[in-house]
Amino acid sequence: MSTNIRYFGSLGLLALALAFSTGCAAFRASTADVDVEQPKHMSQNYDYTDMRNITESVVNELLASPFLSGQAQPPVMMVAGVQNRTTRYVDTKSLTDRMRTALIQSGKAQFVNEARREELLKEQGYQAAHATPETQAAVGRQLGAKFMVSGSLIEMESESARQVRVSKQKVSYYKLTIEVTDLETSLITWTTEKEFAREASLPLIGW
Fold first, then answer.
1. Are 159 and 168 in contact (CB under 8 A)?
2. For the CA atoms of 192, 95, 185, 69, what is the dihedral angle to 10 degrees?
């Protein structure tokens, strides 16, 4: 019996030594490129794939809307932001940045850089004091936005009831609302909602 124990113990030590000597993949850190065009979800939570999908859907709907197609000139807009009303951190600026980029590239809308107004005024003041007259940016020539883009992102979650099982089911629901408001009249001239939900089966024991 003791011979068998020593034998199998030796085999185990040999296997462990071989794994470390050959750089077993289980003990190595690794990286790989991921194709962001291919949907990939690690959990039921909101992720970059969702961000890409819902922003593309919002932009496509806005570009095809009577509101935008009925404008004689590309309207000047500003981004007020999207409220994060979920229970976790969500970079909602990445949502509006991606929508703004797509709309500008379409040639159907223009945007003022409301996030950089302080820097713009500072640069104009510097040019007024130090730049040659022919290269100075003219003061008081900035365009005022006609429309404001804003919205909110909400989240709801539900879990399976307690019972004898090896895993539990968890569903996360998200809804993004985007609206365009006329800054002169305060009327909402266009709005849309995009929603999705994802279910995950989570083990009761694990990490």
1. yes
2. -60
Q: Residue 133 has what pLDDT?
A: 87
The model's pLDDT over 169-199, given as tens digits with 9 standing for 90+, comes to 778 899 999 999 999 999 999 999 999 888 8
For the chain, what percentages of helix, strand and coil (3-state, to nearest 5) are there?
Answer: 40, 30, 35
Bridge partners (DSSP) listed for residue 155: 174
Measured at the CA of 114, the angle between CA 110 and CA 115, to 5 degrees, comes to: 125
Q: What is residue 185's DSSP assignment?
A: T
Alpha carbons within 13 angstroms on the beta-carbon side of residue 89 total 1
Q: What is the spatial distance between Cα 76 and Cα 108, in angstroms, rounded to a whole number?
A: 10
Contact indicator for 169, 201 with CB cutoff of 8 Å: yes
Report how far residue 80's alpha carbon sits from residue 21's, in angstroms, rounded to the nearest whole number: 57
Q: Residue type for 37, please?
A: E
Task: Give the total residue count for the chain.
Answer: 207
User: Rounded to two decimals, what is the model's pTM?
Assistant: 0.72
Q: Is the pLDDT of residue 8 over 50?
A: no
Please state the separation of Cα 51 from the chain's center in Å: 4
Expressed in angstroms, the distance from the first to the final Cα of the chain is: 37
Tens of pLDDT, residues 17-64: 555 555 555 556 656 655 555 556 555 567 778 889 999 999 999 999
